[in-house]
Amino acid sequence: MALRPPSSRTPTETGEPRPPGDRVLAVHRIGALAVAAVIAVFGVLGFVNGLAFFSTEGERVLGLSSNGLLSTISIATAIVLVVAALRGPRIASTVMIVVGVLFLVSGLANLAVLRTDLNFLAFRFPNVVFSVVAGLLLLTLGTYGRVTGNLPADSPYARAAAEEDEDSVDGVPSTPEEFAAERAMREAEVAVVQHVASAEQRRRVAAMAEHTRRADRRQVWMSFDSGTSSGSSAS
User: Fold this and answer.
1) Which whole-number Å values give the CA distances from 207 to 26, 106, 169, 193, 210, in the listed order?
2) 0.85 cut: is pTM over it?
3) CB 53 within 8 A of CB 61
4) What Å distances lie between residue 137 and 10, 61, 99, 101, CA to CA?
5) Which residues are within 8 A (CB) of 112 and not within 5 positions of it... i.e. 6 or more apart?
6) CA gap 125, 82 in Å, rounded
7) Per-residue pLDDT of the chain (235 residues; tens, 9 = 90+)
């Protein structure tokens, strides 16, 4: 009897719950697309209605006030969110955080210029409320599963944080030899940048360049002093 190949279906297709890490990334990507869709509809309807570009009075669109400039900014923001979502969930998360902050700033700034000649985006109070709510929503979606003290074990952000913590602990020199190696490493790297390094310094810096963790780079440097082959690499 022929053996069946292992199923290639995703957890969702097999009825199994999605792992927390996958859910985090899905929220970032889908959240960016959902918010972009709402903002894009608002912007497109503004253009369809032929709104004056710099009118400070504005006209009603989906219960909000808008003009041509606000419609343009809305569509540009939607495009940025869509591109970020297509590029990847990490980028979508970062962009949503940045755009969320801009929405909050825009809401407060336009609140200060309501009913004045400086109201270039034709804001009314409902626009301010929408801007603040949208900003908070974007911040919530962007930071979901990323800014917390209890990240899922399979979250890429949890792994990144764990690697940084490990490097911060293991990378700190603790013996006189390690402190001396750190000083020599910095001197060699500066000398290489200034094109005054000796052949030995260039060789050591080139060997260290194969590693990113501070402890590994220091171990490579110290291997030269101990007579160990420079080609050996620390795990």
Assistant:
1) 39, 50, 23, 15, 6
2) no
3) no
4) 29, 21, 10, 10
5) none
6) 28
7) 444 444 444 444 444 544 455 777 888 899 999 999 999 999 999 888 878 888 888 888 989 999 999 999 999 999 999 999 998 888 999 999 999 999 999 999 999 999 888 999 989 999 999 999 999 999 999 988 777 655 655 566 665 544 554 444 455 667 888 888 888 888 988 888 788 889 999 888 888 888 877 788 888 888 888 765 444 444 4
